[in-house]
Every structure is written in structure tokens, then in C-alpha cells.
Amino acid sequence: xxxxxxxxxxxxxxxxxxxxxxxxxxxxxxxxxxxxxxxxxxxxxxxxxxxxxxxxxxxxxxxxxxxxxxxxxxxxxxxxxxxxxxxxxxxxxxxxxxxxxxxxxxxxxxxxxxxxxxxxxxxxxxxxxxxxxxxxxxxxxxxxxxxxxxxxxxxxxxxxxxxxxxxxxxxxxxxxxxxxxxxxxxxxxxxxxxxxxxxxxxxxxxxxxxxxxxxxxxxxxxxxxxxxxxxxxxxxxxxxxxxxxxxxxxxxxxxxxxxxxxxxxxxxxxxxxxxxxxxxxxxxxxxxxxxxxxxxxxxxxxxxxxxxxxxxxxxxxxxxxxxxxxxxxxxxxxxxxxxxxxxxxxxxxxxxxxxxxxxxxxxxxxxxxxxxxxxxxxxxxxxxxxxxxxxxxxxxxxxxxxxxxxxxxxxxxxxxxxxxxxxxxxxxxxxxxxxxxxxxxxxxxxxxxxxxxxxxxxxxxxxxx
Amino acid sequence: xxxxxxxxxxxxxxxxxxxxxxxxxxxxxxxxxxxxxxxxxxxxxxxxxxxxxxxxxxxxxxxxxxxxxxxxxxxxxxxxxxxxxxxxxxxxxxxxxxxxxxxxxxxxxxxxxxxxxxxxxxxxxxxxxxxxxxxxxxxxxxxxxxxxxxxxxxxxxxxxxxxxxxxxxxxxxxxxxxxxxxxxxxxxxxxxxxxxxxxxxxxxxxxxxxxxxxxxxxxxxxxxxxxxxxxxxxxxxxxxxxxxxxxxxxxxxxxxxxxxxxxxxxxxxxxxxxxxxxxxxxxxxxxxxxxxxxxxxxxxxxxxxxxxxxxxxxxxxxxxxxxxxxxxxxxxxxxxxxxxxxxxxxxxxxxxxxxxxxxxxxxxxxxxxxxxxxxxxxxxxxxxxxxxxxxxxxxxxxxxxxxxxxxxxxxxxxxxxxxxxxxxxxxxxxxxxxxxxxxxxxxx
Lengths: 465, 444
Hints:
The complex is a heterodimer of chains A (465) and B (444). With 465 residues, chain A is of the alpha/beta class. Chain A is 32% helix and 26% strand. Chain A folds into three domains: 3-146 and 272-333, FAD/NAD(P)-binding domain (3-Layer(bba) Sandwich); 159-269, 3-Layer(bba) Sandwich (FAD/NAD(P)-binding domain), CATH 3.50.50; 354-457, Enolase-like, domain 1 (2-Layer Sandwich), CATH 3.30.390. In chain A, strand 17 and strand 18 form a beta hairpin. In chain A, helix 3 packs antiparallel against helix 4. Chain A is globular. The model of chain A has no long low-confidence stretch (mean pLDDT 96). Chain B is an alpha+beta fold and 444 residues long. Chain B has three domains: 2-104, CATH 2.40.50.100; 127-215, no CATH class; 223-443, Chloramphenicol Acetyltransferase (2-Layer Sandwich), CATH 3.30.559.10. Chain B has eleven helices and 22 strands. The A-B interface holds A 337, 339, 403-406, 430-433, 435-436 and B 125-127, 142-145, 147-148, 151, 162-164, 169-170.
């Protein structure tokens, strides 16, 4: 036995490293096992590098509007290699940052692949050599990876997952994106903005299907205006690889098929949990459809083993994983008054153009609960700051319980809404009602004023529309 | 500019009310604090005060109008020298309602006194739940929790919060029973707000230093006892009847019967009757003779039971429980005796099934074995009567002008006055006494 810890976290992604920091803060002797790079998918292959890419595409978009803002320039170009290099540098900087945080909190970082090895024991193998560690608590945070379907398997060259899509060796002229969730749409947006001919296929009847229907429809309109081809209610039945292109057979709901030939395909059909080879079965930990079944505090049912993040239930988002990491660390340390995560207060953000952000119930879901609701809407065109920014396209929507004034959901599309949504999340978490939000003074001129107006609008009292 | 005077919301649940009487006339000058009108709700009549000074412009809703919606304009207030029919600015008018109103208890109510309610806003959107307890302690609750509590008539002061630093959040209120509705209706209704409801008892922990007591957390039985008996005592109008029974004949019968008990192979007698077994049997026989006592209160009717199902209060280490001898009128003393013994063992082993202790028509609680002479019990709902049985003891009694010694037992019956009136209960006890004093008459 090499060493023993109070807590060993398996996986150095956002859930894992945050859990480790919190555990260390609470005085627990903590280690993190990571097989690749600290920061996990989020920092290295997800949230962060894509934001760097999308920033480049946003600038490209603005460059095409230079005239509008009083500038003139011509003959500007982009260099995909440099765009990718910047994105990688951003990831590298942040991954290093996590390493620094581990050091600062005296957290031992163990490189290798971990496996549960009996009660309170973890075996970590690296280069064929296994070392055993003892831990009073083991937190599984192994994350997830892209889902593949039979016939729709990535090859890393012509058929990509997010991983290859993030580091294209050259810029594809045409692209088929399979899946219109956050990952698919962000890549579709990035490539379309930079000029690729992008087709998005979605099996459900609308793009961004988890979002409010009105927001989905608004997004679909905006994407179509940008020249994105959206095929909803459509599946990909076959991908036929050519020398440097792929011919996809698409089947619509009505049975009609068509073929499209594209340079590259990006598969973004959701994720599956990384449940393999970590000793779950031997330990008696339940797995349901590639995700560990965990209690509201991350308990796995096996004493001393916890699970958080993408490995467990939806929503599969970094900030949800981080929050769960804190909850588990505090539970382990015996902190009093730890509250379980309330999924209806977890915001979701998609960094396409225009951006989409939401929290809580959609209008349809709120109606399904059977309660009386009231809905407020406010368009970007009624907001001074939005017009000054040249971003007058968007919508803010609120859904309230008509009787109690509870904020059931908020849905936004438009510039910078991913930065705005937290206001509604704070309100929801603090259980503010329509009244407190109405009485809140929002600064002028800001985009946030639309959030106020959308609250007032639920009572037909919006001021600037 | 004229402002509207709006129909005030005098309680959190008020949606409409009757404009009972105007106390001002059009053109009359009013100042802050003047009573403008009397507003009647289903719960109370309240006086409605002016907050601003001015002149009554127009009375829009004549007195005697029923079903006036909260926030509907009922009159206009104009500044001195302004025409009465000047147009009205509604939002400004909303501010024009006095925060405090006076509430008067409904007629014929015990709590008939004029009381000042907690701050009430005429604007229904404003919170109507007090932000502080009656002793001025601030209640920490989320705005949503306050709104839901107001809607459901829940007194926040009675809740403990599960949110950060004990803050009351939505889940706490949603899980709470609408206590204010269940609490003594008169007091709460009279107040028209939680402000005057039953004040929660202070937490005992406030009075003692930590470490100077041992804390025994409530188990589910303790919680059930606390909850059930608190509501039984608070909601059922109890009254008590006490009677003395002479046990001389009973003791003799009991001795004779016990002596005659056949013995099994192991020399254990087939039964051993206790005084309490006679009490159960006598209760059952008396209940069949007095069906109006063998009854339960329900919202719409009195339920008369066809059998005498008699509950026996059994003390167990963690509390008490009342298993039931069903159809005790049809069972002999030996059967009752053995059944009670079995139920008591099951109760101590916590093996009673709900159908063995829920329901029933009557209960017997006996503390005689502890030498208790007499006591009163709390009715065990949905039953309407319970007898508290004291010790059988030798006492000096007067018979035909002479002092004699007899074994006596004092029995006190608690009755639900909604079901059993005094004379009804008394007649029952008379019959009960007869059966106890002449056990042979139970054979008739």
C-alpha cells in the first residue's frame, strides 16, 4: 500500500477537482486521480476551448459588420490553425491553473486509471503498473464521452466527435452536424459563422429540443437566416465515406430519404457515462443506462463511495458537477445543513449565435404541472443597450406561477444572455417571487433591464413595449 | 388629482367582501385615521380607515353591496377644492389605503373584542404574512414561502426552516399542514390574519443552558402522541363527568369466577379476570344501551356505531397506544380478558397492526394499578368518550345513614360535547355504574 487518504477523487474534471478543493478546504487529506489532463473534458475538450473558438467566430462576424460601426477594412482572412492554436492555449493555461490550485490546497495528483479494489481501496494503474491506495471515501467523477450509434461511429478523420471538431487540421467547406443539442449547435454556429455550408440534423421536431419551444423556434429562424440548413424530425440512416468526403442518407419523419455529401460530419447525439473499468460491478454499484445511480447527496449505496457529475444523472453540465462536488465533500466532512442539488435551479447555456440560456421549466412543462401560470416576454428590440450594441435580435421570457408568483422558469435568446441568466437563477434559488423582481432596480442602460421588463410583462406592466 | 379608494383585502384569503356600511358621505372631509366604512367578510366585520386626508368625491359602491372584489374602486378621494368627478389615477390610489385596519370578532364569538391586526395591505399582491412573531422576533422566510403560507393560511411562526441558517423555504411551507385553519377557528378567523392566531409555545431550549439537560430526540410515536393529543384537546370540546362505583359485588364475582377457571395441562388457569376486564365489558354493555354515546363526530353527521369497539390505553416504554377489543358486547369476560392480554403484549412488542388500534368507539384508560384515585383523559378521536378509571380502594361510605367500608372506584368520563350532551353522558355512566355494581345484571 502506497498511501492513504481521507478522500480520493477519481477524475480531475470540473466535478472532481472542485470536490477535491472543497474537501481539502475542510481539512481532509485529499487526492485526485486523473488519466489524462487536469480539468477534464470541460477545460480541455469542451466548455472552455469551444468558447475560445466561438469568440473567434464572433469577431469574424463583427468584422463583416465593420461598416455598420463606422470602420472600413477589406481583404480580411482567418487562419484556422491560429484560431485552433489560441483555443488550445486557453485550455493549456486553465489546465495549468487547475494544477496550481491542486498544489495550493496540498492535494496529491495521481496520474493513471483508477479502479475500485474493495472497501476503502483504490487501485491506480499507470503504464501497466498498479499501485493501491487506501481512502476512507472515494468520489467517482469519471465523466462522460460522446454517444455513438451503430453505423454512426466516428473515425476521427471524416466523421468527428467534439474532440476532432475542436482541432480541425483544415477548414471544412461543408459539414453535417448530427444532433442539435448544445454541443451540436455550438459547432454548427462556429463553422457556419466562419463560412462553412452547415446542415444540422435533429431527430426531434425542433432544434435545441430541451429549450422552451418559443426559444427553439426563435433560434431556428435566426439560424436559417444565417444560412444554416436545419432538418428536424430527421435521422441519419447511413454514412458512406468517400476519399475526402462523406455521403449521408437522411430519413425524414414521413419516410422520405435524401442524400447529402459533405466534407465532414460531427456527431453530437448526446453522451454516455464513463462507467467502464472502474470496478462498479464488483463493488455492487448500480448503473442505469450508462450512468451511476446515486442518491441526492451522491451516495452510491456502497459505503464510502460517492458519484458526481456527468457520471450520474442529468443535467450533464460542468456547473452541476462542480456543485455536486461541493455537496459530496461537505457531506464527507460532516458539514451540517448541506442541501441536495435542485435540478430545477440549474441553468443551461448554449453559446451559439444568438446565445441561448435558460433555467427551470419551459412554458409547456409548467403548463403540464397543472398550475395556473403567467408568462412575460420582452424582445431585445425594446432595449436601448441592445440597440446600441447592434444586437437587437432576441427575446427574454419568464414563466411564473400565477397564484404564488413563483418563478418557474426563465428563457432567453440573444446577445450575452449566458451572462444574464444568473440573475434569474439567484432569484429562483432565493425563492424570490414576481413581486421582489418587480421591485428590484435594474441598472440602465443594460441588457439586464430586459429581465426586469420580462417580469413586468407577465402582469402586462412592461414599460418599454 | 383624485385617487380611487379601493376595496381592501382584510385577510390573506379575502377575495371579495360586503360593503356593509358607509360612515362617510360624498363631499365629507376626511383625515387620516377616520373610519370610512365597515367591510364584512365571511369571517369578520372590519372598520376601514382612511390614510390620506381629502374629501370624499364620489361613492362608487353603495352600502349593502355584496361580493365587492378586492381592489375594486369603492369611492374617490379628491383634494380640497377639486371637483368630485376628477379622473382617477389607479396606481396612486393603491397607496392610499391605510395599512392597518381594525378587525372585530364575529358576533357571538368567544373572542369578541376589538383587536388590532398585523399590518395588512390593501394591495393583494403585498405579503399578508407577518414578518415577525407576536413578540417581535423576525421570521426568516423566503418571499415565496411567505406567499404560499399566506395562501394556505399557515402561520410561519409555527414552522422551522430547512433553508440556510434556518430560513423557511418553499418546501417547509408546502410540507406544512394548513395549521392555522385547523387551529381554533374562532380566534384565527376573528383576527383575519395569522397575527392573532394561537401563539406558538416558546421552545423549551430557550430557558435552559445547553449541557444541563439530556436531549432525547422525538421518535415517531412521541411525535404522533404530541400531534394527536394536541389537536384532540384543542379541537374537541371536552367536558367531564365523575362517578363512584362500589366494587364489593364485583370483587366477589371476580374471585368466584377466577377460582372456577379450568386449568390446562400446565396448570395455568384458562383465564384470570381483572377489574379492568369488568370495566371493558360494562362499558361495552352500556354503549349498546346508549347508542348516542357509542358515536363519532364527522363533518356532516354523527356516526352511530353498531358494535361496541372498546379501546384500551396501554402504556409501553416509548409511549402509549390504544388497541381495540372489537364488538366487546358480544364477548364474554374470559374472552375479553385474554384478548386484552394479547393486545398488550403485541403493543409492547410494537407488533400491532393499524387495524388493531385505529377507529374504535370508546376508550378505557386505567391508572388504578398506580394508586391513582381519579384523573381525566383526553378523548381519542374519532371516538367521543373515554373513561379514566381510578384505583379500587377501601373507602368509608355512608349507607342508610351509617358509615360502612366498601371497595370503591372512581371513574371520570371525558365527553365530546358535539356528540354527547351532559345528560346523555350522565345516563350512560349511570348504566355503567349499575353493571359494575351488579355484574350479574350484565347477563340480562
